[in-house]
Amino acid sequence: MAHLLTERWWNPFATAVVIGIIATIAWPLSAATGRNSGLGITTPSANLTGYLATGDTELIDWGVMLVIGILVGSFIAAKASGEFRIRVRDQATIIKSILGGIGMGVGAAIAGGCTVGNAMVSTAQFEYQGWVATLFMIVGAGVAAKATIKPKQSAAAVPTTESRSA
Predict the structure, then answer these.
(1) CA-CA distance, 158 to 166, in Å (whole number)?
(2) Distance (Å, rounded) from C-alpha 143 to C-alpha 153?
(3) What is the pTM (predicted TM-score) of this model?
């Protein structure tokens, strides 16, 4: 089982099915713990930060345990697969990461939730906010990809010494 979970590449469609199952199970589990919502990361992350700052145990719910589970599970999977490394990136990458994180946080605040909350939960509830947010996430990702990814020149487009002498 460890080989299947940690050493092999996962098919993105299999991963989507697993996430769908987790999202479906999240509804009744959330309701059972008093958190009447589906799968989400932004609000539980804010609750976790609030708990760490204030010690208010009322903030701990199923969503907070999900966020902690994501962090701990990612660490365990990286260690089990031998891929865990502590890396210090260059200054430009660190600055881009900080700015990107701030942008994601501001976007989540404006959209009323994170990508998971809007794209999976709000659209499932047929909420206008979820559909608008998801549309702009797709557009934003496309614009960012176009702005940051430089196309590679194909070997046919690069002149060689043979083609220049002919």
Answers:
(1) 15
(2) 21
(3) 0.61
